[in-house]
Amino acid sequence: MSDKMNFIEKEHVVIRFSGDSGDGMQLTGTLFSNISAILGNEISTFPDYPSEIRAPQGTLGGVSGFQVHLGSSRVYTPGDEADIFVVMNPAALKVNVKGIKKNGIIIFDIDSFDDKHLEKAGFTTDNPFEELKLSETIQLIPVKLSSLTKESLKEFDFDFKTMARSKNMFALGLICFLFNRSIDHATHFLETKFKKKPDILKANTKVLVDGFNYGQNIDASISIFQVNKSQCIKPGTYTSISGNKAAAWGLIAASQKTGLQLFLGSYPITPATDILQELSERKDLGVITVQCEDEIAGITTAIGASFAGNLAATNTSGPGLALKSEAIGLAVMAELPLVIINVMRSGPSTGMPTKTEQTDLLQALYGRNGESPVVVLAASTPDNCFHYAYMASKIALEYMTPVILLTDAFIGNGSSLWKLPKLSELPEISIPFVSAEMKGKIKVTSRNDGNMVRYWAIPGMEGFAHRNGGLEKDYDKGAISTDPANHQKMVTARQTKVNNVSELIPELVVEGSKDASLLVIGWGGTHGHIISAINSLKKEGEKVALAHFNYINPLPKNTVEIIKQYKKVVVCELNSGQFATFLRSKVEGVAFCQYNKVEGQPFTVLELKECFKKYLEE
Amino acid sequence: MLLYTAKDFKSDQYVRWCPGCGDHGAIGSLQKAMAEIGVDPNQIAVISGIGCSSRLPYYMNTYGFHTIHGRGAAIATGVKVANPDLMVWQITGDGDCLAIGGNHFIHSVRRNVDINVLLFNNEIYGLTKGQYSPTTKKGFATKTSPFGTVERPFRPAELTIGSRGTFFARALDVDIRTSVDVMIAAAKHKGTSVVEMLVNCIIFNDGAHGWLASKEHREDRMIVLKHGEPMIFGKEKNKGLVMDGFTLKVVTIGENGISKEDVLIHDCTCHDSTIHQKLALMEGPDFPIAMGVIRSVDEESYDEAVYNQVAQIQKVTKVKTFEDLLATLDTWEM
Ligand code: SF4
User: Is the residue at B132 inside a domain?
Assistant: First the structure.
């Protein structure tokens, strides 16, 4: 390491890699975050894919980015703005200009900032930085990434394109240098990734090393960042996992725990498709996936599988959930276990499919005909998608009910650290199967008087043949019935059963400053931003409490009691006030304030802080 | 000695179809077929959508699921793939199967899921009281086509074969023997077996199949195809089918030098569907209507393919449990 360099210690750093879809920014970002995690940092990442699959090279539509937030203390979000921005072309600069910190650093490939690329990105002068009015406090570091990569690979017999594709490794090497981390881990990852392509592996490793060594030559005014090991991480074995993968694995864990075959009926839809893809890979564990002809078949094949005795699930996003509504009603009526994972995206209609929102809450709660109660859960981080997919399975099976698990594009695509679970430590799942003594004595509607859950007989079982269906059934005999009083009784029974789930779910725990006068309420994927804002205010001496909900229907038993303890309550959500509306119907006598945003973007910590400050001052 | 009788497959539910409805005959044939196959009622799942015929599962002493309009094929697919040991029947009507459920129907046929589809075709919506369906004959007046429909109807056989169907059979509600025979063949066939049951809706479309059903003319107006046998029909057993250029032709044996040997022999197992389609689409008055098993070709079923693939992967993989899966990750100790 050059001795002219000075070190600065940072608690948190946000780095954003951005370039053309073909520039390998996702790989660079993933490798750097994994290296950082191995070295003991907390991480949170977010990939930002272009909406077009193959937009013309160098254009605004083809920009692909990856942001990672490293910390030596708790990291809850991928960060609002980047401290360091690695940019491969002018288009990427233009698209990301709002996400760079005022005193940030921009490392850019000066070879790609030629007239042709500037014009493609719509710049009219040859100084894009000035044109974008980037603050004078930003430090610019030009690096000839393309030509240096070419130089590095001159002994290889590669065509121009292949060489150009390796420039991301040069950037990765350089960043490793700037963070004073060895490239050994990166080389290890590359070895696994390119096991079958020795040439590419050799080239990438060479460029990576050259990028690292190049660090010595850059401007001495730049500092080396030191982000220390986090002391907040519980000891254990960790990996980095995306929300979608975690959700898929939660289902697998529940399947193994119960011994039930896992069945997923699904139809590809952004941003939920990863779950189908992940489970389609798991033939090794006997997971059955059916890629259906449409969303309706996605859920109805799953309902068929549930009827036949599998742990059945379907996954989708907003418009797909709308298509599944009628079938969810069937699962409610037939009282069959079913997990529906809805990865929310911006709507209505096709909306902005790659963008995040929390606008499906009321659809999940009420979007069906008739009195049709379902259990609704919401995961709040990429890694806890595992836990809530597992819990959704547990509740569905134990209460013979459809469960909707809400996640969103932000936590579904984003990654966080995940402490590997032990199956033995996950809660037991006890399924209300019929018992041998019940033979000949029970009907399709027979239920446990305690929790109102009906018993489950699987086709094939001797002596339990029965007819289920979407028509109302007689409470005692199980035969179809249109008797008025019986219908009321059945409606109440199904509702009571869902209400009884509150016996199983944990009580709400207040985070932040419990003794504050202001209570912030959040749910689902906004937890990271809200708690970051609250912690940041705490450092400034301000007290704010947080009640964050993962269980939405039914609500935790102590919900009313907790909310009533606070003078002022503000519900923050990425919609126009859906959870606030729901809470108003459940908690009387509280004037809920709202903070809402419907831009297809997560909250920023900054805007939340401003909002909370405003309420504190009032 | 049969292990079961038709009664073993009857539930205690009061059958609510209109007196004289063709569905009564069809369910009788189904119960008979099940008894003849000798399958345990506990191993059978009968799945239906919505419509008069879709009430059928309630009347069966088997596992049954009366679901939602049009989705029977998808639900039956889920049942079969989840639990391939079950014998799965899907009961559907012309509206349920070919209008609202058309997409699921063609895709289950394309996948060749091992389910037996009984398509009760009465060319009308019965349960909603008399609107035209996708199989109603063009020009027919119904409550929603008071001046006659202007729509061209589907022909279920054409749709089945167009979806690469491996099995198609047809029977008339009142022809119990042929009905039982084709249902047994459907159950034995591996893959999606489509049986078009021509049933009469006595209330809203009485006599839709009357041209064919009349006892007096039935033998002249239909031909019950049997694999390996010559295509001969008629009261006098003297009419036959031959190829004339690219089309079928009805001939009389003994006339114009035609002998029995000139008549086509039915082969329901040939993969090329050309002749099957021609046979299935024959219409009166020039041709008899084809009954019996028209097409039954061997191909891997979907559920079989799904489990074969799983078995293949499981033979070579090191990942046997969730813990093994975790071990495949890039992990680090903290
Ligand atoms: S309306 Fe027609 S199809 Fe329905 S039960 Fe009566 S006769 Fe049968």
Answer: yes
Give residue A594's pLDDT band: very low, low, confident or very high (50, 70, 90): very high
Query: How far A372 CA sits from the closest chain B CA (Å)?
Result: 15
Crossing angle for the helix pair A273-280 and A243-258, to the nearest 10 degrees: 50
Three-state DSSP state, A190: helix
Among A182, A234, A279, A283, which would you mutate to test the B interface (most chain B Cβ atoms within 10 Å of its Cβ)?
A283
Per-residue pLDDT reduced to its tens digit, A489-501: 999 999 999 999 9
Q: Return the number of CB contacts < 8 Å for A and B.
A: 195
**CA–CA distance, A344 with A379 (Å, rounded to integer):** 11
Give the pLDDT score at A1: 45
Does B150 reach chain A within 8 Å, measured CB to CB?
Answer: no
Instruction: Verify whether the Cβ–Cβ distance B83 to A302 is below 8 Å.
Output: no
Contact B58 A34 (CB under 8 A): no
* Cα separation, A33 vs B267, whole angstroms: 65
Residues of B in Cβ contact (< 8 Å) with A466: 63-64
Interchain pair B320, A308: CB under 8 A: no
- Is B78 among the domain residues? yes
Tell me if A299 sits within 8 A of A326, measured CB to CB. Answer: no
State which residue of chain A sits closest to B334, comparing Cα positions.
A235
Q: Which residue has the tokens 């042929």?
A: B178
Characterize the bridge pairing of strands A42-48 and A415-419. antiparallel
Which architecture does CATH list for A510-617?
3-Layer(aba) Sandwich (3.40)
Residue B148, in any domain of the structure = yes
- Residue A41 Cα, gap to closest chain B Cα (Å): 9
Quick one: DSSP state of residue A122? T
Of A263, A304, A462, Cβ closest to residue B42: A462
ipTM surpasses 0.90: yes
User: What are the residues whose beta carbons fall under 8 Å from the beta carbon of B210, sequence distance 6 or more?
Assistant: none
Picking from A598, A124, A23, the residue whose alpha carbon sits closest to that of residue A361 is A598
What distance in angstroms lies between residue A484's CA and the mean position of ligand 1's atoms? Answer: 26
| B202 ligand 1 Cβ < 6 A | yes
Q: Which helix (H) or strand (E) is B327 found in, with range?
A: helix B322-327
CB atoms within 10 A of CB A493: 16
Same fold, A6-226 and A510-617: no
Q: Report how far residue A94's alpha carbon sits from residue A65's, in angstroms, rounded to the nearest whole number.
A: 12
**Annotated domain spans of chain A:** 6-226, 238-425, 510-617
Nearest to A174 by CA among A147, A140, A208: A208
Residue B238 vs residues B223, B252, B263: alpha-carbon distances, Å: 12, 6, 10
Which range has the worst mean pLDDT, A157-171, A230-244, B51-65?
A157-171
Number of domains in chain B: 1
Range of the domain at B120: 6-213
Beta carbons of A303 and B323 less than 8 Å apart: no
- If one looks up domain A238-425 in CATH, what number appears? 3.40.50.970
A198-221 residue pLDDT tens:
988 999 999 999 999 998 777 667
Q: Which helix (H) or strand (E) holds A143?
A: strand A139-143
Assigned domain for B316 exists:
no
> Is the pLDDT at A379 greater than 70, yes or no?
yes
Bridge partners of residue A521, in order along the sequence? A547, A571
Residues 478-517 of A with CB under 8 A from B: 479-480
CATH code: domain of residue B123: 3.40.50.970
Q: Which two tokens stand for residue A298?
A: 């996605």
The CATH class given to the A6-226 domain equals: alpha beta
**pTM score of the predicted model:** 0.95
Q: Closest Cα to atom 6, ligand 1: which residue?
A: B18
Question: Got the DSSP string for A440-509?
Answer: TT--TT-B-TTT-PBPB--TT-TT---EEESS-B-TTT-SB---HHHHHHHHHHHHHHHHGGGGTSPPP-
